[in-house]
Automatic annotation (TrEMBL):
Protein name: non-specific serine/threonine protein kinase
Species this protein is from: Pocillopora damicornis
Coiled-coil region: none
Recorded family membership: Belongs to the protein kinase superfamily.
Domain Protein kinase: from-to ranges: 20-282
Length: 344
């Protein structure tokens, strides 16, 4: 995967508000509104931050998060691309950002539309594309921290694009980095450790994706009509999660991924790469492309998280790679794989 580089940062331009023609309102959130607009004869989306919000500090930090140079450098087919900003330093300067225009339709709209068919293949595809975006984000040391269907836009070709990085944080290598607790996403999707005020990690996004997996399956709003303060308490203290439907209309691996992703212990949740691996397998199966597992030989869809044989297989392969780096080189510059296997 492409990692961040300084050259990619230079592609971001500063935009003068007079160059932007607002066409129509697309939607509003807690800190700003999004408009369809034109910029130099190109259709774009413009997010303009509210200047009259009560929590000015939170609004400004949300803007700063979205225009952080590492966030601006993200470039992935499943992420909405930020094109420019006016680089405002205060709300009085009316901060805004310019993004690629995707559509006015998001994943929540799809789930709410009773006429829209969402079968197992489609819900797995939703999850896979969102997980790919998050894996890339995590590879660049960023946690999104506000994953929910409303923050996933649907492109004209039907693909998903992750949006709204206003709550994101750069994950530091050192532990106990102070977190902005008031910028950690919508409570129904928020990991319990964040609800307790702990510093965010990548595993917080995994938890949010687990809640989204449930929503893709049920098409219901999590904890609908329940008092949010009671929900927060019970998620933290009683391990409350959305009720899992009965029936066999979903693959067991999907169900297991969902429940492991929303595990109360962040260490017990899979990494986003493990999530991607499993969802890729499910997408492959639903496209009629079934491969045999290299580890156990079954015509199944084993992945390291769920298949013990695959875990052992990958450990052996990792050991081989480690030894490979230490082996005497052949004349052509490579180690002898036969000698390597014998030593292992």
């Amino acid at each position: 995967m492409r990692m961040l580089s300084q050259s990619s940062v230079e592609l971001i331009s500063r935009v003068d508000v007079n160059e932007v023609e607002v066409i129509r309102l697309l939607g509003s959130g807690g800190f700003g509104s999004v408009f369809e607009a034109m910029h130099k004869n190109c259709k774009v989306a413009m997010k303009r931050f509210h200047t009259n919000t009560r929590n000015k500090k939170a609004a400004m930090q949300s803007f700063e998060a979205e225009v952080h140079h590492e966030v601006l450098s993200l470039k992935h087919p499943n992420i909405v691309r930020v094109l420019g900003t006016n680089a405002a330093r205060s709300l009085e300067e009316q901060p805004f950002i310019i993004m690629e225009f995707v559509s006015s339709r998001n994943l929540q709209h799809v789930l709410d539309d009773a006429d829209e068919k969402v079968d197992f293949k489609r819900r797995v595809t939703f999850a896979y594309e969102v997980a790919l975006a998050l894996e890339y984000v995590h590879d660049n040391n960023i946690a999104h921290l506000d994953l929910k269907p409303a923050n996933v836009l649907i492109a004209p070709d039907g693909s998903c694009k992750l949006a709204d990085f206003g709550c994101c944080q750069i994950i530091q290598e050192r532990p106990n980095t102070p977190s902005r607790s008031y910028l950690t996403g919508t409570y129904a999707y928020r990991a319990p450790e964040l609800l307790k005020g702990e510093s965010p990690t990548f595993k917080a996004d995994v938890f949010s994706l687990g809640i989204c997996l449930w929503q893709f399956w049920t098409r219901e709003i999590p904890y609908k009509l329940q008092n949010h303060q009671i929900v927060i308490f019970r998620v933290v203290a009683c391990n409350l999660r959305p009720e899992i439907p009965e029936g066999n209309d979903v693959d067991n691996r999907y169900r297991e991924l969902m429940t492991s992703s929303w595990n109360g212990n962040p260490e017990e949740r899979p990494s986003m790469t493990e999530v991607v691996n499993l969802l890729k397998v499910l997408v492959t199966r639903n496209n009629g492309l079934v491969d045999k597992c290299e580890a156990c030989g079954k015509e199944s869809l084993c992945v390291p998280m769920l298949c013990p044989e695959a875990q052992s297989y990958l450990r052996l392969e990792e050991t081989k790679r480690s030894f490979l780096a230490l082996q005497p080189q052949r004349k052509n510059g490579t180690a002898d794989p036969d000698r390597l296997t014998d030593q292992i």
